[in-house]
Design brief:
Shape: globular
Helix content: 10-25%
Distance between the termini: 44 Å
Largest sheet: 6 strands, mixed
Structural class: alpha+beta
Number of strands: 6
Strand order of the largest sheet: 2-1-6-5-4-3
Order of helices and strands: HHEEHEEEEH
């Protein structure tokens, strides 16, 4: 795994012994499953017909489609890593703030591989039933990711807070 981009908020220090069962499942999902592309953990974490809306946009149902998504993302971004920045639990729901990052090695959003370290933020909402995830919805900062992918083309940003008004 690679370190988070410099100057950004550090990942949480997660003590597995002090996490609730649901927060521990979220930790396993990101740190054990995603960071290692270990799709074998999917049946332990999710109900067979769970629903998923990913940070990069797709809406999927079930284990096999989700496993394909994991493979696509982790193949596209070498050393893919999930940084858990915050977790909040309320009843059968856990939400959080995450940063996803890796080395851009395959075409993504129509952008050819840059070989650059790219990242984006995500905000997941996990809904649990009987100890496993029934639904996962993740809002992702796709535009931030696309902007970072495009930085290698030297295209000016569409918005810049330091730019003088016209």
């Amino acid at each position: 795994m690679i370190a988070a981009p410099p100057g950004l908020e550090p990942a949480m220090e997660l003590d597995c012994n002090n996490l609730s069962q649901q927060k521990e499942m979220v930790r396993r999902f990101y740190k054990d499953m995603w960071d290692h592309a270990n799709v074998g953990l999917i049946p332990e974490i999710f109900h067979p017909d769970f629903t998923f809306r990913g940070s990069l946009g797709p809406v999927l149902v079930g284990h096999s489609k989700f496993a394909d998504y994991v493979r696509w993302v982790t193949d596209s971004l070498e050393h893919y890593t999930s940084d858990i920045l915050d977790l909040i639990e309320d009843g059968n729901r856990v939400s959080g703030k995450l940063r996803f990052h890796g080395i851009h090695r395959k075409s993504l959003f129509g952008r050819p591989p840059t070989g650059q370290h790219v990242w984006w933020y995500g905000a997941p909402i996990f809904i649990f039933r009987d100890g496993r995830v029934e639904d996962l919805w993740v809002l992702g900062d796709i535009h931030g990711l696309i902007e970072r992918l495009d930085q290698s083309t030297n295209a000016p940003p569409e918005f810049n807070a330091t730019r003088a008004p016209r």
